[in-house]
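Hey,
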Amino acid sequence: MVKSLQEEFTELLQPALQIAEVSKVMGKSKCLVKEEHSKKIVEIDSKIDQKELVPNARVALDPTDH
């Protein structure tokens, strides 16, 4: 039980995901997204269904990925 509480606590300390909007899919591994005041190219996670990555779709970005 203590181990599970420690794992949950560690998860709560992680930075929050950032929300962005898809501007353009650039191949199978990259995507141009726009955040509040900027645009950037990000890698597409292998678990993402690429059929859902269409312009104006909202996506979550992991702020720990650089």
